[in-house]
Specification:
By secondary structure, the protein is an all-beta fold. It contains no helices and 6 strands. The radius of gyration is 11 Å and the shape is globular.
Length: about 70
């Protein structure tokens, strides 16, 4: 699951490494300005997110990481 806003309830999502899903939908994140590693997050329902916002990814209550939406 993931969220794009601090108080937003967690949203069901799938995480893909270094690529977009086959249908081309999803949000690309970069780990930091100095790193090129990317993930793609595909939410089950549409999300309002813009480039520059943060996205945080969880496995249940466990924080896995996050990044900046690009």
């Amino acid at each position: 699951s993931a969220r794009v806003r601090y108080r937003q309830p967690l949203q069901r999502a799938r995480i893909y490494a270094d690529t977009k899903p086959a249908d081309g939908r999803g949000l690309n994140l970069r780990e930091s300005a100095s790193q090129s590693a990317k993930i793609c997050v595909r939410f089950e329902s549409a999300q309002n997110a813009v480039s520059g916002q943060s996205l945080v990814v969880y496995d249940g209550d466990r924080l896995l990481g996050g990044g900046i939406i690009s």
